[in-house]
């Protein structure tokens, strides 16, 4: 199958369907990576704010676990991330590492 439309003109006059799927996958992955990075930075920022008033690591982690239960379709995945990265993130917050650095360390943002 070949496509020949104006929207694909930067890629040549004929683009194979497989190439188009690959291109769309790369673009979607890049967009999702940006969204994941932004969400991580927002979450870490929220955690920093919360920890200013509640210093307990356990209380903060418990709150995160409750928040995960409220997220439709991703609650279990969220809980897994809290289990895997929660202590590390909280420890980094306590050493005054910035939100973007924390998200880079745990792999959600690129350098």
From TrEMBL:
The keyword Ligase belongs to this UniProt entry's keyword annotation: no
Q: Which residues form the Saposin B-type domain?
A: 33-111
Q: Which SMART domains match?
A: SapB
Under InterPro entries, the record lists:
SapB_1 (IPR007856), SapB_2 (IPR008138), Saposin-like (IPR011001), SaposinB_dom (IPR008139), Sphingo_Act-Surfact_Prot (IPR051428)
GO terms in the biological process aspect are: lipid metabolic process
Q: Which UniProt keywords apply?
A: Disulfide bond, Glycoprotein, Signal
One Pfam entry for this protein is SapB_1
Q: Where is the signal peptide?
A: 1-33
Task: Work out whether the entry's keyword set contains Hydrolase.
Answer: no
PANTHER family, alphabetized: BCDNA.GH08312, SAPOSIN-RELATED
The protein's name is Saposin B-type domain-containing protein
Record the organism: Entomortierella chlamydospora
């Amino acid at each position: 199958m070949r496509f020949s439309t104006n929207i694909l003109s930067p890629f040549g006059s004929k683009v194979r369907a497989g190439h188009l799927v690959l291109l769309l996958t790369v673009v979607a992955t890049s967009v999702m990576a940006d969204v994941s990075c932004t969400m991580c930075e927002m979450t870490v920022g929220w955690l920093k704010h919360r920890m200013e008033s509640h210093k307990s690591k356990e209380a903060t982690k418990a709150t995160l676990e409750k928040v995960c239960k409220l997220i439709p379709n991703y609650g279990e995945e969220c809980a897994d991330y809290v289990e895997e990265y929660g202590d590390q993130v909280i420890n980094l917050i306590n050493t005054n590492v910035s939100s973007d650095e924390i998200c880079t360390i745990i792999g959600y943002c690129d350098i």
